[in-house]
Design a protein that fits this description.
The protein is an alpha/beta fold. The protein contains 18 helices and 27 strands. It has three domains: 236 residues, Glutamine Phosphoribosylpyrophosphate, subunit 1, domain 1, CATH 3.60.20; 201 residues, Rossmann fold, CATH 3.40.50; 145 residues, Rossmann fold (3-Layer(aba) Sandwich). The protein binds 6-O-phosphono-alpha-D-glucopyranose. The site of 6-O-phosphono-alpha-D-glucopyranose has 16 residues, from helix 9.
Length: 608
């Protein structure tokens, strides 16, 4: 999704802007642009539809300035085009603005500004900001005051960075619903919408709060509110490794992140398993045992893969703690006037911590007095800050659009929560020990599955040629099927549908034919016989079956099988999912897809 970068300091801004934009490419975008100033009165702009590499090629050699802003755009208002790319300028080409988010009253503002003489050159909502700021700057007016006054007319969400050719000694930024991070350097300052763009230059950052603005100069910054009250903000230190932002010799970030899972799972578990009491320590919950005992229900909210991870989490909580638990897309929940109950624990799941629908759901729950925990990967992100407590994943930055290691770590976090909950309720010490031992064994078991990658790659290349694929699983296996289907369709564009195995004969069996193979989750658990019966029904209709199983089913029931090591039954879904990540990855590679940046998708969806 849209990305912002900005620089002010003694060096040439353009180099940082281009490199920073490249670091944000993973979020998904369709056009990019930069604007720089330095000598008062000069403003240079270059923008183009396409990739950051296209922008770098289009930037003229003499495109230099010490103050600059850059942007990658993911189209919401108007098609991807050079004209709609940011930065946007006012008539006199003095003000340049980059913007993430959506200005809801853009049409009304556009009419008003047009009547006052503004000439619009794009279809974007952002351009109104450039004209609006220009309407407020004038002799002796500080840029920050003009921006503040302009934002007073705006309804919507934004993260913005603004430069004024007449005041090149500063960049003014503002945040309302879309992240802005300041990076502190030595006599230079950086700005970005995501720390990924900054970590090569500084680890000292300040996250702006909603409703805050900042004036950023080469030698420092000041933060203030919309009503011009100065606020003091202390920098925090980013602890993610710079190496996480490189592919480290892997062909794609996605493959690297799949292979990082033994280590990322260890980090999620680190310091959290208590063998003595056969439970989990979760320091950030901010809920003591007595408060936890009062919880009667758990409601989990997330979008995309986070929602499916939540489904696995709900299953774990019900099984281990015997508390009713349910996962729902945050994007639906927030629009249906949800009933918020005092004895329900709400859990928001988000890798990025920025997904707008999930953030809005959290805000709605809190407004109604509910208690929300966050299961979040990005420390200090908007959702993490909004929640009453939570569990950080410590999976490290996830760059590829499709979630793999963060998905797995989310399910681990839920296993820890379920264990903790369970041991406060009726989960026996023996069962607690069983789960603790099961969790500890996972990193090695994931290594074992990854060692079988070559065979999965071969199968993926074969199955990728089909017209579509069905994914089926029963009870614990169904969320695995849903995530497996999601992964395949989002990165390979092969149509995939997930169904509970039990529902197959109530409809989708009509689709089964040799060109629509089925991936079946067949763990060796109490439902094995039922699953094998379903495979028989598919084979009887000439369907092809790829089983993900603990034991290979009879050749009459499955054409191929990928075997995974056995965990505890409650934890099996975690391992059954790993081969499906590799299956989707290698199918996408076989079909020559843009694996890390699938078409039309974005890593964190910060708009409605
Ligand atoms: C987007 C991404 C998905 C991701 C979802 C939730 O739709 O394309 O891969 O699962 O957002 O993201 P989050 O950062 O909230 O986990």
């Amino acid at each position: 999704m849209c990305g912002i970068v900005a620089y002010i300091g003694p060096k040439d801004a353009t180099a940082f802007l281009l490199e920073g934009l490249q670091r944000l490419e993973y979020r998904g975008y369709d056009s990019a642009g930069v604007a720089v100033t330095g000598k008062p009165g000069t403003l240079k702009v270059c923008k183009t539809k396409g990739r950051v590499a296209d922008l770098a090629a289009a930037v003229p050699a003499r495109f230099k300035g010490t103050t600059g802003i850059g942007h990658t755009r993911w189209a919401t208002h108007g098609e991807p085009s050079d004209a709609n790319a940011h930065p946007h300028l006012d008539n006199s080409e003095r003000i340049a603005v980059v913007h993430n988010g959506i200005i809801e009253n853009a049409d009304a503002l556009r009419d008003r500004l047009t009547a006052e003489g503004a000439v619009f050159r794009s279809e974007t909502d952002t351009e109104v900001l450039a004209h609006l700021v220009a309407a407020h700057v004038g002799e002796g007016v500080e840029l920050e005051d003009a921006v503040r006054a302009a934002l007073g007319h705006v309804v919507g969400t934004y993260g913005i960075a603004v430069v004024d050719a007449a005041q090149p000694d500063r960049i003014v930024v503002a945040r309302n619903g879309s992240p802005i991070v300041l990076g502190l350097g030595e006599k230079e300052m950086f700005v970005a919408s995501d720390v990924a763009a900054l970590v090569r230059y500084t680890r000292q950052v300040v996250h702006l709060e909603d409703g805050e603005l900042a004036t950023v100069r080469a030698d420092g910054f000041t933060t203030f509110t919309e009503d011009a009250r100065t606020v003091t903000r202390q920098p925090s230190t980013v602890d993610w490794e710079i190496a996480s932002y490189d592919t480290a010799g892997y062909e794609h970030f996605l493959l690297k992140e799949i292979h990082e899972q033994p280590a990322s799972v260890e980090r999620t578990l680190s310091g959290r398993l208590d063998e003595r009491f056969a439970t989990a320590h979760l320091g950030g919950l901010n809920l003591d045992a007595r408060e936890l005992r009062e919880i009667r229900r758990v409601k989990i909210l997330g979008c995309g893969s986070a929602y499916y991870a939540g489904e696995m989490g709900a299953q774990l909580i019900e099984e281990l703690a015997r508390i009713p638990a349910h996962s729902e897309p945050a994007s639906e929940f927030r629009y249906r006037n949800p009933v918020i109950e005092a004895d329900t624990l709400y859990v928001a799941v988000s890798q990025s911590g920025e997904t707008y629908d999930t953030l809005a759901a959290v805000q709605e729950i809190k407004r109604k007095g509910g208690r929300v925990l966050g299961v979040v990967n990005t420390v200090g992100s908007a959702i993490a800050r909004e929640c009453d407590g939570g569990i950080y994943l410590h999976a490290g930055p996830e760059i590829s659009v499709a979630s793999t290691k963060a998905f797995t770590s989310t399910v681990i976090a839920f296993a820890l929560l379920a264990l903790h909950f369970g041991r406060i309720h009726d989960l026996s010490p023996a069962d607690g020990r069983r789960i603790v031992a099961g969790l500890k064994a996972l990193p090695d078991q994931i290594r074992e599955i990854l060692a079988g990658e070559d065979k999965i790659a071969e199968l993926a290349a074969e199955y990728a040629q089909s017209e579509g694929m069905m994914f089926i699983g029963r009870v614990r296996g169904f969320p695995v099927a849903r995530e497996g289907a999601q992964k395949l369709k989002e990165i390979s564009y092969v149509h995939a549908e997930a169904y509970p195995a039990s529902e197959l004969k109530h409809g989708p069996l009509a689709l089964i034919n040799p060109d629509l193979p089925t991936v079946a989750l067949v763990p060796d658990d109490e439902l094995l016989d039922k699953n094998l019966t379903t495979l028989g029904e598919i084979k009887a209709r000439a369907g092809r079956v790829l089983a993900i199983a603990h034991r290979a089913p009879d050749a009459k029931l499955a054409d191929h099988a990928i075997l995974v090591p056995r965990s505890e039954p409650e934890l099996d879904p975690l391992l059954l999912n790993i081969p499906l990540q590799l299956l989707a990855y290698h199918a996408a590679v076989a079909l020559k897809r843009d694996v890390d940046k699938p078409r039309n998708l974005a890593k964190s969806v910060t708009v409605e």
